Amino acid sequence: MPLPPPSPTSTAVVTGASSGIGADFARELAARGHGVTLVARRSERLQELAAELGTAVRAEAIACDIADPDARAALFDRIAERGLTVDILVNNAGIGTIGLVTRVPPVDEVAQVRVNVEAIVDLTTRAVQQMVPRGRGAILNVGSTAGFYPFPGQTAYAATKAFVHTYSEGLRAELAGTSVTVAMVAPGPVRTEFLRAAGMDEKKFAAAFPKFLWMPSREVARIGVDAIEHDRGNVIAGRRNWVATRFAQMLPRAFLLKTLREQHPALRRDRSAR
Ligand SMILES: NC(=O)c1ccc[n+]([C@@H]2O[C@H](COP(=O)([O-])OP(=O)(O)OC[C@H]3O[C@@H](n4cnc5c(N)ncnc54)[C@H](OP(=O)(O)O)[C@@H]3O)[C@@H](O)[C@H]2O)c1
């Protein structure tokens, strides 16, 4: 039973539902009949999406900064107070620093580890400790094609996503036979608010990545939800991103790193500003 069927007393929690891929995960789950709990910091955005989805399924907004350990601990209580159990957890919220490590504020480097790594471990641990005794549940984590090899220009971000990949695969193996499944979807480039949040010039960044690798966020969400529905484990979003990632992994590592270092738009920008 990879994707638990919808029920009036259970919910699919989506972190980072206030924009981009997260909003589309919520739309995709709602379209399949699941009640959704929308989590992020921007409450108004969540309320708007809850109103949009609420015409078809139960949908509620819970404002929560998942970088804050106390807020994370309270999140499951806030859901339980509504009489709901968490059947599906989509760990989608993510942020990334872009640019030379010598120029990135240390506080931002650490913040991305809190959101992309610490929060996923905490929320997942809490969720599976409820799901396994109940005998139903699914976890979907969001990685990135940038997490399959070191990525100069987004060094710490790529390392957080490599963690997500390894963590998801290990946890999936641990939970085999428990009726709780774990999947991970690694998107390639997707037009969302991610680059703006990282202070990156979207046009310059877009020009550096081949057009054929870009995917709509709703398509990424569909592939991710399918990964839990069909119990696929770790997947790369889209055949083209799969081929590009596997090709990059086969290149001699020194050549790959030199090419990425020379081509990354943020590194070109930072070098010229030195
Ligand atoms: N866009 C891409 O090209 C791409 C490629 C590969 C992987 N990804 C991954 O896809 C996921 C979604 O990113 P996106 O592209 O959709 O970016 P996005 O549009 O910037 O969305 C990021 C979401 O994360 C939430 N968030 C950030 N910090 C948070 C915090 N402390 N507490 C709670 N929520 C927080 C944001 O909500 P608030 O600001 O309202 O809190 C927002 O809803 C991320 O994990 C990202 O790493 C994106």
Question: Your description of this structure?
Answer:
With 274 residues, the chain is an alpha/beta fold. It has a single domain (10-272), classed as Rossmann fold (3-Layer(aba) Sandwich). Helix content is 51%, strand content 14%. It is built from 11 helices and 7 strands. It has helices at 20-31, 43-53, 69-81, 106-134, 155-174, 194-197, 202-208, 217-229, 239-250, 253-263, 265-272, and strands spanning 10-15, 36-40, 59-63, 85-91, 137-142, 180-186, 234-236. The protein has a 7-stranded parallel sheet, with helices on both faces. The longest helix is centred in the middle third of the chain and has 29 residues, at 106-134. The termini are far apart. The model has no long low-confidence stretch (mean pLDDT 95). Bound molecules: NADP nicotinamide-adenine-dinucleotide phosphate. NADP nicotinamide-adenine-dinucleotide phosphate is lined by residues 15-16, 18-22, 40-42, 65-67, 92-96, 115, 142, 144, 187, 189-190, 192-194, 197.
Tally of helical runs: 11
Give the CATH level 1 class.
Alpha Beta
User: At the third CATH level, what is the topology name?
Assistant: Rossmann fold
- Identify the CATH homologous superfamily: NAD(P)-binding Rossmann-like Domain
Give the distance, in angstroms, between the N- and C-terminal Cα atoms.
Answer: 55 Å
Query: Could you describe the largest sheet, including whether it forms a barrel?
Result: 7 strands, parallel
Q: List the bound ligands.
A: NADP nicotinamide-adenine-dinucleotide phosphate
**Poorly predicted parts:** none
CATH-defined architecture: 3-Layer(aba) Sandwich
Number of domains: 1
Total strand segments: 7
User: Which structural class matches the secondary elements?
Assistant: alpha/beta
What general form does the structure show? globular
Organism: Mycolicibacterium flavescens
Pfam families: adh_short (PF00106)
Domain Ketoreductase: 10-193
InterPro entries: KR_dom, NAD(P)-bd_dom_sf, Sc_DH/Rdtase_CS, SDR_fam
